[in-house]
Structures are given as structure tokens and as C-alpha cells.
């Protein structure tokens, strides 16, 4: 009895360990040991069965977590349809042009030895952004015969390597007068302006749906606008400055702040060539001094900052216009 009680006490303290050795002097140890093995095996079997049955429950997330992980993903970005095709011819003028020359500020024929870079063909999203596209078309179509201000003769005034270049800036002319496409006048005193609409799409959240997710994205400059502040204050101001992303990657910093209204269909090699042109980059000490001057409210800091990232070569739009897509002729149906 003493040995049986000791074995039971040992098994309660150590349920998963082997029982004490069998004593040959006591024949009841064989029966006790057999009973102990049976209890231990049943206990191990029950515990293992319970563990296996609860394992799938542990792997499954709680209902609340499962519902949270199944939140609907945002809709994919729209794929706008191209409604119009326009071209921009870019050239380099080895002779000097003023780097702050505004839109259409001088005749491009003033360059005696232009070096053509090539043509960029743009597809415009006229159905998605009709007003923005209409103003861009007007700025590309005017200027040659009507002598209205246009993109023709405008400089590429900013190049950010690996991001974009911009053109179509409106500023002040050589005499200090505002040079804007809606205020220039011809010799008869009539406005030298194309038909520019008041663009209410700049305040419509739907206008910012398309992302700057690929090279060759054509966008209206809003946050990156460099127009002269005196021009912007005019109630008849029309923003026509644009940028083209150069790649190699997307430009998410431009999203929700500039309006994508087109894409490059042909001429990405020309875009890459413009992006590779060296630009003016001030030294780090000058940048720090400029930041401090801007912190103090010095207006000259902003004027100096406007010269940063200017191309060291004079790249300008030598020609622009619309590409008419010929419609196929339908032959009469024969009986």
C-alpha cells in the first residue's frame, strides 16, 4: 500500500513523466504501473485532441479583424480618352536670350542659328478637362497669323532632373509691362489674345483624379506655377503654364496639386534630351543664406530662388499647332 500511494503521489506531481521503477519484491507494482500507463495515455490523448481541435480557431482572425481587413480598395484611376493631338517643336538657340523672357516675349526668328531638338506630339484629354484643354489648344493655335500671344517663342524656363520641365511662364517684358496673353495689344489697340476661358477646373476636385504616374505626363502648373505675382493679381489672369514629366519614375509630389490633361504620344526622346540639359544650381551656402533671407521676409530671396533650376542652354518652343488626323474615306456601297 505504501508503494502504491507513493506511485500515485508521484504521478500527480509529474503527470507526463515515467513512473517510478517496478519493484520485483512487490507483485502489485505491475498492476499499479499498468493502471498508471493507461491513465497517462488517456490524458495525453485527450489533451492532444483538444489542442488539435482548437488550433484552427487560433489561426482564424476574430470577426472584427476579418471585417477590417476586407475594407474596399480605392477605385482604379480613370483612363482618359485622347480627343486632340497637338505638337510642340523644340529648338536650342546658341545666342543669348533672357532667361526670364515671358511667354511670347520675342520673335523666335531673332535666333539666327537655331538647333532643332525635335517634335513632341501630345494627346489631350478633352472630355475629362474641356476648359483646360481648350486654353492649351488656343495657345498652340494662335500667334502665327493673328499675332496673338502663344506658346510659340516661349522658353523652357525650369528643368528639374528626374522630375519635369516647365514652359509657358507669364512675366514682365523688357519695358516692365506685364506680358500676358490676354492683355497684349496689336497696333490697332485691339487685344492680342487668343480665346482663353476662365478655368474653373482648377478648383474642381475631380480635375485632380489623374496621377503623375509615368514619364511624359502633361500637366497644368498650379503648385509649380512660376508666373509673375503682379500678373497673378489681375482679375483677368489665365494660367497657361504647363509641365511635362521626364521620368524615369513617377512624380507623386505633383499629385493633387497640378492638373493632368494630356500625355506624350511621340517624342519622348526629345523630352529626355531636354531633361539632360545642365541647369543652374547654387552652392549649399547660398541656399542656406537664401532660406534665412526668406525667413526674415526679404522679397529678394524669392526673386533669387526663381533663377534656380534654369537651363544653361536656351531651349524654346519654335513652333506649335494641331495635328489633324485624316479620316478614312468611305467608299459608296455597291448594290
UniProtKB/TrEMBL annotation:
<feature type="region of interest" description="Disordered">
    <location>
        <begin position="166"/>
        <end position="199"/>
    </location>
</feature>
<dbReference type="InterPro" id="IPR002130">
    <property type="entry name" value="Cyclophilin-type_PPIase_dom"/>
</dbReference>
<protein>
    <submittedName>
        <fullName>Peptidyl-prolyl cis-trans isomerase CYP19-4</fullName>
    </submittedName>
</protein>
<feature type="domain" description="PPIase cyclophilin-type">
    <location>
        <begin position="115"/>
        <end position="322"/>
    </location>
</feature>
<feature type="region of interest" description="Disordered">
    <location>
        <begin position="61"/>
        <end position="81"/>
    </location>
</feature>
<dbReference type="InterPro" id="IPR044178">
    <property type="entry name" value="CYP28-like"/>
</dbReference>
<feature type="compositionally biased region" description="Basic and acidic residues">
    <location>
        <begin position="172"/>
        <end position="199"/>
    </location>
</feature>
<dbReference type="GO" id="GO:0009507">
    <property type="term" value="C:chloroplast"/>
</dbReference>
<dbReference type="Pfam" id="PF00160">
    <property type="entry name" value="Pro_isomerase"/>
</dbReference>
<keyword id="KW-0413">Isomerase</keyword>
<dbReference type="InterPro" id="IPR029000">
    <property type="entry name" value="Cyclophilin-like_dom_sf"/>
</dbReference>
<dbReference type="GO" id="GO:0003755">
    <property type="term" value="F:peptidyl-prolyl cis-trans isomerase activity"/>
</dbReference>
Amino acid at each position: 500500500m505504501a508503494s502504491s500511494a507513493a506511485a500515485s503521489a508521484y504521478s500527480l506531481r509529474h503527470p507526463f513523466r515515467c513512473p517510478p521503477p517496478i519493484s520485483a519484491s512487490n507483485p502489485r507494482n505491475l498492476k499499479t504501473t499498468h493502471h498508471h500507463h493507461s491513465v497517462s495515455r488517456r490524458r495525453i490523448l485527450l489533451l492532444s485532441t483538444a489542442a488539435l481541435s482548437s488550433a484552427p480557431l487560433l489561426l482564424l482572425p476574430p470577426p472584427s479583424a476579418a471585417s477590417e481587413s476586407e475594407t474596399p480598395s480605392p477605385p482604379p484611376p480613370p483612363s482618359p480618352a485622347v480627343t486632340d493631338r497637338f505638337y510642340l517643336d523644340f529648338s536650342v538657340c546658341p545666342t543669348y536670350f533672357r532667361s526670364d523672357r515671358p511667354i511670347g516675349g520675342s520673335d523666335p526668328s531673332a535666333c539666327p542659328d537655331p538647333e532643332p531638338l525635335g517634335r513632341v506630339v501630345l494627346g489631350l484629354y478633352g472630355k475629362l478637362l474641356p476648359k483646360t484643354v481648350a486654353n492649351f489648344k488656343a495657345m498652340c493655335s494662335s500667334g502665327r497669323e493673328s499675332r496673338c500671344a502663344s506658346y510659340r517663342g516661349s522658353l523652357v524656363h525650369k528643368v528639374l532632373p528626374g522630375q519635369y520641365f516647365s514652359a509657358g511662364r507669364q512675366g514682365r517684358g523688357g519695358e516692365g509691362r506685364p506680358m500676358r496673353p490676354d492683355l497684349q495689344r496689336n497696333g490697332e489697340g485691339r487685344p492680342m489674345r487668343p480665346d482663353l476661358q476662365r478655368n474653373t477646373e482648377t478648383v474642381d476636385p475631380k480635375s485632380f483624379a489623374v496621377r503623375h504616374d509615368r514619364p511624359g505626363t502633361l500637366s497644368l502648373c498650379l503648385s509649380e506655377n512660376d508666373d509673375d505675382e503682379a500678373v497673378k493679381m489681375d482679375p483677368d489672369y489665365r494660367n497657361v503654364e504647363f509641365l511635362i514629366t521626364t521620368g524615369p519614375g513617377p512624380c507623386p509630389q505633383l499629385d493633387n496639386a497640378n492638373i493632368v490633361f494630356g500625355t506624350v504620344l511621340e517624342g519622348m526622346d526629345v523630352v529626355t534630351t531636354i531633361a539632360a540639359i545642365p541647369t543652374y544650381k547654387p552652392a549649399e551656402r547660398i541656399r542656406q543664406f537664401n532660406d534665412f533671407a526668406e525667413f526674415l521676409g526679404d522679397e529678394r530671396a524669392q526673386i533669387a530662388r526663381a533663377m534656380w533650376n534654369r537651363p544653361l542652354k536656351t531651349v524654346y518652343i519654335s513652333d506649335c499647332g494641331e495635328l489633324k488626323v485624316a479620316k478614312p474615306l468611305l467608299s459608296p456601297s455597291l448594290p
